[in-house]
Specification:
By secondary structure, the chain is mostly helical. Among the domains are: 144 residues; 280 residues, Alkaline Phosphatase, subunit A, CATH 3.40.720.10; 91 residues, no CATH class. Helix content is 58%, strand content 5%. The protein is built from 35 helices and 8 strands. It has an 8-stranded mixed beta sheet, with helices on both faces. Strand 3, helix 7 and strand 4 form a beta-alpha-beta unit. Helix 25 packs parallel to helix 28 and helix 32 packs antiparallel against helix 34. The radius of gyration is 31 Å and the shape is globular. Keywords: Endoplasmic reticulum, Glycoprotein, GPI-anchor biosynthesis, Membrane, Transferase, Transmembrane, Transmembrane helix. InterPro entries: Alkaline_phosphatase_core_sf, Phosphodiest/P_Trfase, PIG-G_N, PIGG/GPI7, PIGG/GPI7_C. It is found in: Endoplasmic reticulum membrane. Ethanolamine phosphate transferase involved in glycosylphosphatidylinositol-anchor biosynthesis. Transfers ethanolamine phosphate to the GPI second mannose. It is a multi-pass membrane protein.
Length: 896
């Protein structure tokens, strides 16, 4: 097969891959259908009394239940309200994904958001997911002539454009800040408590969530932040007690989600799905006898007091403030508040809730036929969900009718209505009728086409028949890797703990490489070093789900021995300084080279130190504080831009300076310098405790260079191009998980996504978000290109097909030109990686298709699909092929 033909095949494969992945996603992640318009009262519901006329709705981001209710809580005043009976405490169950936008949507509408809102949560400028045309409780308050004020997370403003009478938003992406982001909300509290022109006041605090992201729930900053929030609660509650215009105000405190032991969220662990929720008012003392235990003992993991669904907030607010329950609500009125009404109104409150949920059931199940007030036709045997709901509705109507005729008690009617709403809530929360199976099938079909094209590209891209046969033989390790990885995609446990697979199979691969070294008459030290460093990096960050938050090298050692940690961090930058000083701008002399290299590293180190001081000052050892304080007044944005600018200048000089220099090794030298500059950039985008891993990767890379190039004791490189490509693929995954990545949304790192950015820009932040979370894979994917250059530089003699078979290598291009040699093996590398992701992507699609009714479809399989999309589209197509092509083009331009 000719080179151009193979490139066309690779292009066609990736086109089918990308289109297939997005087609499947459209069918798998559709927007959930909703009923348009606003709910209105029935004549009977209009007459129900309203206990309150105002609401203060305070959201503390990531307020896990134990943060408020446990003995270790610093919400002392809040606990006093609980024990006095002035507060009703609950644990609110937040459905996955436990991310801010979908959780706010759930609290506003009472509906269960679609999983696609997880992606939209990171696109701050997105307006397609607004609730401007949906029924929400703020919309109901505004429709009756009320006014809503809002301060805090600007997600509210984007979801409800034009809704708020007064507003000021703060961005949630500056996770390094947990002081100003809350002060900007608190400064509005006192003035708003003095005003009497609002019906709802929304406050959304982000600082506690930022503390969790930065240092976890056991951070030294956590208890002070809790005390700060408790002080705000005291201020608001005191206003309710002392200000006449607030006497009929209900104060709701809620967490949008919780957090896991690592401080993240997005998944379905008990810590992430268990949020605190309290309704507070001096009025409640009349309806509680002696209050509730505070602090309280959990009756399950992170479960305190009564467990309710987060969607229950919406209908409960509706009946407490007396406005129609939003149309798409699937929540239930919390029964603890029913004693606030007389018997007649209690039944009417629940009828209102049941009738509204019945409308959602009818819209969700087109063939559903509600029965009248006669349950005699209902069987006691197991029934389909729709029939069961119809019978429960009939029993509820029957019980209500009997109560109205005096033949049953109000409690009988209340019991049947609660039973119907409970069953309806469970059915509607799990309803998956919005899958577009046609689009999902088309997506799978396109991936099958991609599989066929990629197989042709790999196995027929070698050239002659003999080479093709040999290609099948030497691709056995690739076949084993793909087969095992595909099998894993059908198991929830294997998906959650996928990192173990990559750690073990990579270790096995490099053990085989060590045996190959020894068979070649060498000691095998290079492969052994790589093996040992894989073992160290695998223990650096504990990842996965089963052992999430367990001790690792970072939490168990480095953060406790900050001097050792910073010695390793500085050693990483010193290594980069040594590398750059040897090569960057070297043709102009050692002095300019040292100045430029020193400038780059100084800017990068200064930024990292300053960022750490603001992010986690406790991680700075005392001996380093005087140096850090020298740059205390410098803005982080300016420091980051200085580092990026220095890297950009060095890259430009490298490319332009080599154009006039005649040297057969220019191509290799440019690649090496660019990769060294990339290492510095990736260290900048990493958490400070992960910077030493960049040094680990560089040492592994140097060991692979020795195996991929000609050494004095061997005639030609020890590793073949296929072995180099496979090694790079394995280390991409090892590095991803070693840096803390996982198949769980909660492992996404947002701490470096605004480096050098003064205002939110969706494109720039999107790029930085990807690079911050794919640091390791980017290092090894572009490193794989450099390794092929080393290989080509050692393969300068004409290659014979017979020699290839005898010495364990294959060269797709028969030439004595290293550039041609490298071009051919680069095509094979891209073809191999495309083959891997097209087949694995097909397996993930098939797994999601088969498990679409599985209990863990939205907590395990769906997040894995999103990660597969990122690996296949952004990492493979954009980074490996797109950026890799630019890398090679820039290199080629510099030497022509």
């Amino acid at each position: 097969m000719r080179p151009n033909q193979q490139w066309l095949l690779i292009a066609a494969t990736n086109l089918s891959l990308v289109v297939g992945i997005f087609t499947f996603a459209v069918g798998f992640f559709p927007y959930k259908p909703f009923l348009p318009g606003l709910s209105v009262f029935s004549e009977e519901s209009e007459l129900v009394a309203a206990p309150f006329n105002k609401v203060v709705f305070m959201v503390i981001d990531a307020l896990r239940a134990d943060f408020v209710y446990s003995e270790n809580s610093n919400f002392k005043f809040t606990q006093s309200l609980i024990s006095s009976g002035a507060a009703f405490p609950f644990t609110a169950h937040a459905n996955a994904p436990t991310i801010t936008m979908p959780r706010i949507k759930a609290m506003l509408t009472g509906a269960v958001p679609g999983f696609l809102d997880l992606i939209l949560n990171f696109a701050e400028s997105d307006t397609t997911s607004t609730l401007s045309h949906q029924d929400t409780w703020p919309a109901q308050i505004k429709a009756r002539g009320g006014k809503v004020a809002m301060y805090g997370d600007d997600t509210w403003i984007k979801l409800l454009p034009g809704t708020f009478y007064r507003q000021e938003g703060t961005t949630s992406f500056f996770v390094a800040d947990f002081i100003e982001v809350d002060n900007n909300v608190t400064r509005h509290v006192a003035p708003e408590l003095e005003r009497d022109d609002w019906d709802a006041l929304v406050l959304h605090y982000l600082g506690l969530d930022h503390v969790g992201h930065k240092a976890g729930p056991k951070s030294a900053f956590m208890l002070p932040k809790q005390a700060e929030m408790d002080g705000i609660i005291r201020k608001i509650y005191t206003g309710l007690e002392t200000k006449h215009h607030l006497k009929d105000t209900v104060f709701v405190l809620v967490g949008d989600h919780g957090m896991n032991d690592a401080g993240g969220h997005g998944g379905s662990t008990a810590g992430e799905t268990s949020a605190a929720m309290l309704f507070m008012s001096p009025k409640f003392k009349n309806y509680t006898s002696g209050g509730f235990p505070a602090p309280a003992e959990p009756h399950g993991e992170f479960r305190f007091h009564t467990l309710v669904e987060q969607t229950d907030i919406t209908p409960t607010l509706a009946v407490l403030l007396h406005f129609p329950i939003p149309k798409n609500n699937v929540g239930r009125v919390i029964s603890n508040f029913l004693p606030m009404w007389d018997e007649k109104d209690r039944v009417q409150v629940l009828i209102q809730n049941a009738q509204q949920m019945l409308q959602v059931v009818v819209a969700t199940f087109p063939h559903f036929e509600p029965l009248g007030a006669d349950s005699s036709q209902c069987s006691t045997k197991a029934q389909a969900e729709e029939i069961k709901l119809a019978c429960l509705w009939a029993k509820a109507l029957e019980a209500r009718s009997l109560w109205q005729r005096g033949q049953a008690t109000a409690d009988d009617a209340i019991e049947e209505l609660l039973r119907f709403t409970k069953e309806a809530q469970g059915v509607l929360a799990m309803a998956a009728s919005s899958y577009n199976l046609t689009l999902m099938t088309i997506g799978v079909f396109l991936l099958i086409i991609a599989n066929i094209l990629s197989l042709i590209s790999v196995f027929f891209g070698a050239g002659s028949t003999g080479s093709i046969i040999y290609t099948f033989a030497i691709n056995i390790p690739v076949a084993i890797l793909i087969t095992l990885n595909c099998i894993m995609m059908f198991s929830t446990s294997f998906i959650e703990e996928e990192h173990n697979f990559w750690y073990w199979i990579s270790s096995a691969w490099f053990f085989v490489m060590m045996l190959k070294e020894r068979r070649n008459g060498e000691i095998g030290i290079s492969s052994l070093v790589i093996l040992l460093l894989i073992r160290i990096s695998s223990r650096w960050n504990q990842t996965g789900v089963k052992h999430q938050g367990a001790p690792d090298i970072v939490t168990g050692f480095l953060l406790k021995h900050t001097t050792v940690m910073w010695i390793l961090i500085l050693a990483t930058y010193l290594y980069s300084l040594w590398r750059l000083n040897k090569r960057v701008c070297r043709r102009w002399g050692s002095a300019p080279s040292f100045v430029l290299a020193s400038t780059i590293i100084s800017a990068a180190v200064t930024f990292k130190m300053s960022f750490t001081q603001q992010d986690a000052i406790e991680a700075i050892p005392e001996w380093l504080l005087p140096i850090v304080q020298l740059f205390e007044s410098a803005p982080l944005v300016s420091l980051a831009r200085a580092a990026f600018m220095a890297l950009g200048i060095a890259m430009s000089i490298t490319l332009f300076a080599e154009r006039t220099k005649k040297d057969p090794k220019r191509s290799l030298r440019i690649s090496v310098v660019l990769h060294d500059l990339l290492s510095v950039f990736l260290a900048t985008q990493s958490r400070f405790w992960n910077v030493p891993l960049i040094l680990v990767f560089n040492i592994q890379f140097r060991m692979l260079v020795k195996l991929s190039s000609s050494a004095s004791q061997r005639k030609r490189p020890l590793l073949s191009p296929l072995e180099i490509s496979l090694s790079s693929l394995l280390l991409q995954h090892v590095a991803f998980f070693a840096l803390g990545g996982s198949n769980n949304i909660s492992s996404l790192d947002l701490s470096n996504v605004l480096n050098g950015v003064s205002g939110f820009n969706v494109v720039i932040v999107g790029i930085l978000t990807f690079l911050s979370n794919w640091v390791g894979p980017v290092f090894w994917s572009l490193g794989g290109i450099v390794l092929l250059r080393w290989w080509a530089d050692g393969e300068v003699r004409p290659v014979k097909e017979k020699d290839d078979r005898e010495e364990g290598r294959i060269s797709p291009v028969r030439s004595d030109d290293p550039g041609d040699q490298e071009e051919g093996v680069y095509r094979q590398q891209i073809a191999l990686w495309t083959l891997f992701w097209s087949i694995v992507g097909s397996a993930v699609m098939a797994s999601c298709y088969m498990h679409r009714a599985h209990l863990f479809i939205w907590t395990v399989f769906s997040p894995k699909y999103i990660y597969t999309m990122t690996w296949s589209v952004l990492h493979l197509t954009v980074m490996n092929i797109g950026v890799g092509a630019l890398w090679r083009w820039g290199n080629k331009w510099a030497i022509e």
